[in-house]
């Protein structure tokens, strides 16, 4: 039977290899060449890219990809690419069997002590020394019920092992189902047939053109084909904390598992799934299906501990941390939780105490018998006395067995299992029983606000424009001059990521679906309220026509886009944190749409009367501004300080991210709700941690 299965698996592997080889014949570049290119990188990688493949354009031609419009989206073409270069998924490590979980559960020190005591109790229950010589009156032997003690201990151990293993087995299945759902929900912007579409990460194939922007986590390896001040955090792979600037002519290589920290651009996918950098790390960790038993994790933890973008990888690293090989035995020792460590310590202490009492009991019985028989009655030694000594020794062992608390692990396991069941009713999925004990020791829980405590659906609810503030419903019908309305519509439409957009609502929803950056989506909704169309503006000014782009980052706290308008004017639009952008403004649009001087006194007034009240209402304030440049006297775009200065303020928007209705607001502090809405982090004090 095993040979038949082995033959079937070998034939299946051979068939898949044959399909891969046949599919690769469709393209002028092989999977091995792409892997070598992505592993080499750097200056040597650029030389290989230019000399062997004819640059980025040459690689695109070999992969039959249009770098401008992307793939056609033909199902047959997608299938061929998956057969030739693999799917963008990593086969997970096979789950542990139920018997493996039982074996791991029985490794507990307390259970091992109980098993030893049960074996001793069983053995002694069937041993009865001859006592007729020491008792004058013969008594009828009672039924042998001493074996019940050992049986009770064994039953308690079996129940503990079964409950623990069954809980881990069921929760593992639930977590894997949840993991697959999370992975299916993860999408990425891809160009198909010259149209941006959001595809599940698993459907990305080699040859796709992906749109990357600030905050994205790259799902595959590739090269940059177009960039706007693109900078990447590669610390998860290289350990280098400095951001790496990527450009199609200098360092175009992008790796999966790295973060886009600044800028935007387009990427040609060259490696997916197990052939990407994340897939290689999985192989080294022994986390893939094929490599789980063949390779051992020899790579240092430092190279992989911060790799992001896949929850399964975090589980693998956690498992690597939890199961460290013991230097003496060579076996993997699972790290114990706090409660397990305390129970183990208690069991050992009880064992020592029981052993001490048992030894004292045996000594007292020996001494008493010796005094009575030899000192008082002056009897001589007889070999029959050995039976009495054996009985005393059995009494001591019985004391030791009784001292071991066989019900303690059972009580703890059942209580934790009950806690898991109660947490399931609160929609909290607990993977391991000891996690309940860990959470019970927590005194404070820190949570990210956006999307966790809030709905992550941002909307412009307050606007200061034309020297007048507008709130709530008035935002949807602001009487604006045509000039101001045109600048707002064009400025927000152009100076936002083109991957951010509002889609028609689904059947169950009534509001448009926000795709991309939620703050930009709120501003795009404000554009629609003003009667504009951001799609028409973006069609007029494609990304390739931008003169320059200053992308958003945590240091800049603003974003600027420079375009050349139809009348030849070079205009720069800026948006960002109100207090920062407003400091760089020298003018502000009045109620007629004309720029008027803006002084530091005006800045202080707006800060106190507009920005601070919005912040107190829990709103995120964004200032939108612009600046015109004369075509013949363009500045040095690399000198950002002088370029992004002397702006004209257009408006200040207050964006709300509503708190989820199921969140319970505390009434202890009067300003707690406002502080919660405005803060990026919150901390809950748990009064009843147990």
TrEMBL record:
State the organism of origin.
Didymodactylos carnosus
The biological process GO terms on file are:
regulation of cytosolic calcium ion concentration
Lineage start: Eukaryota, Metazoa, Spiralia, Gnathifera, Rotifera
Q: List the subcellular locations.
A: Endomembrane system
Q: How does it sit in the membrane?
A: Multi-pass membrane protein
- Check the record and name the Gene3D superfamilies matching this protein: Calcium-transporting ATPase, cytoplasmic domain N (3.40.1110.10), Calcium-transporting ATPase, cytoplasmic transduction domain A (2.70.150.10), Calcium-transporting ATPase, transmembrane domain (1.20.1110.10)
Composition bias (Basic and acidic residues) maps to 292-314
**Enzyme Commission number:** 7.2.2.10
Chain spans, region Disordered: 292-329
Q: Where are the transmembrane segments?
A: 109-127, 147-166, 346-369, 389-420
Give the UniProt entry's GO cellular component terms.
Answer: endomembrane system; plasma membrane
Give the protein name, as stated in the record.
P-type Ca(2+) transporter
Give the Gene Ontology MF terms in alphabetical order. Answer: ATP binding; ATP hydrolysis activity; metal ion binding; P-type calcium transporter activity
Q: Which UniProt keywords apply?
A: ATP-binding, Calcium, Calcium transport, Ion transport, Magnesium, Membrane, Metal-binding, Nucleotide-binding, Translocase, Transmembrane, Transmembrane helix, Transport
**Which residue numbers delimit the Cation-transporting P-type ATPase N-terminal domain?**
52-126
Pfam families reported in the protein's UniProt record: Cation_ATPase (PF13246), Cation_ATPase_N (PF00690), E1-E2_ATPase (PF00122)
